[in-house]
Amino acid sequence: MATPAQWLAGARPKTLPAAVAPVLVGTGVAQALDGFRLVPALLALVVALALQVGVNYANDHSDGKRGTDADRVGPMRLVGSGAASAQAVLVAALLAFAVAGVAGLALAAYSSWWLVAVGAVSIAAAWTYTGGPIPYGYRALGEVFVFVFFGLVAVVGTTFGQTRTVEGLAFAAAVPVGLLITAILVVNNLRDVHGDAAVGKRTLAVLLGERATRWFFTGLLVAAFVVVALIGLARPWALLGLLAAPLAVPPARTVLAGGTGPALIAALSGTGRVTLVTGVVLGLGLALS
C-alpha cells in the first residue's frame, strides 16, 4: 500500500504549472476583452489541475503495466516501483478525471455546452497518451498533443468559458504557453531517452537523438518569448511576460551543456517554474492591456 507521500509524488506536482499557467493566461485574455468572470475561471482551474493529475496517474498506470517504468530516473512511479497496484493507480486516474468532468459540466452550464465536447476529447487525449491500444506518446506525437491541448485548448477554452467568444488574442496568447509546456515534456523525455529507447518507447527525443533534442528544447524556450514580444506589439502590457525570460537561462544552460539524470530533473523543475511565472506575468500584462 502506497503512503500518502508516495501518492502525492506519483501525482507529479512539479508538472502542475502546466495546468495553472494556461488558465492564468486565458483569464488575462478574458479580462483584456472585458469578459472576466471569477466562477468560470476557478472552474477552469479545477478542470486543468484534475486533468493534469489524471494524466499523470494514467501514465503511471499504463507505463507500469507495459514495464517501461521499471528503471527510471525522476519522480515516483507507483506501479513501476511496486508501491501501488496498477488497479489502484487506475482508480486514482479515473477519480481525477471524474473531478475534471464534474467541474467541466459546471463550467459548461455557466458558459456553453460545447465545452462538454471539448472536455470529453481532452480526457480521451489524456488517457490515450500512454494508454489504449495505440498510445500516441509511444509514437513521437506527445509534443504535438501537449501543445494543442495544454496550450491552445486550455487557454482558448478558459477565455471562452468566461467570454463565450473565440478571439484571436486567446490563440496568440496560447502559443507561448503551449511552447513552454511542450518544453517541459521535451526535457522530461530527454531525461528518459535511453530507458525509453531500450523498451521501445519511440518518443520524439528517441527519434531526434540527444543532441537535436537539446537544441529543440532551447528553441522552444526562445520561441515562446519571441511570441510574447510579438504580442506586445499589439498589447504593450503583455511585454511583462518577458520578465520571466531570465528564468529560462538555467535550464537551457543545463540542457545545452549535456546535463543528464539529476541535472535534467533540476532542468525540468526550472522549466516548470518558467512556465508558471510566465503564466502569472503574461496573464497580468494581458489583463492590464
UniProtKB/TrEMBL annotation:
Does the UniProt entry include the keyword Signal?
no
Primary residence: membrane
Task: Write down the EC number.
Answer: 2.5.1.74
Transmembrane feature ranges? 38-58, 78-107, 113-132, 144-163, 169-191, 212-231, 263-288
Annotated signal peptide = none
UniProt cross-references to Pfam families, sorted A to Z: UbiA
GO MF annotation terms: 1,4-dihydroxy-2-naphthoate polyprenyltransferase activity
Keywords from the named record: Cell membrane, Membrane, Menaquinone biosynthesis, Transferase, Transmembrane, Transmembrane helix
Q: In which pathway does it act?
A: Quinol/quinone metabolism; menaquinone biosynthesis; menaquinol from 1,4-dihydroxy-2-naphthoate: step 1/2
User: Where in the cell?
Assistant: Cell membrane; Membrane
Organism's domain of life? Answer: Bacteria
State the top-level EC class: transferase
Q: How does it sit in the membrane?
A: Multi-pass membrane protein
Function of the protein: Conversion of 1,4-dihydroxy-2-naphthoate (DHNA) to demethylmenaquinone (DMK).
The entry sums up its family as follows: Belongs to the MenA family. Type 1 subfamily.
List the protein's name: 1,4-dihydroxy-2-naphthoate octaprenyltransferase
What is the originating organism of this protein?
Klenkia terrae
Classification from the root reads: Bacteria, Bacillati, Actinomycetota, Actinomycetes, Geodermatophilales
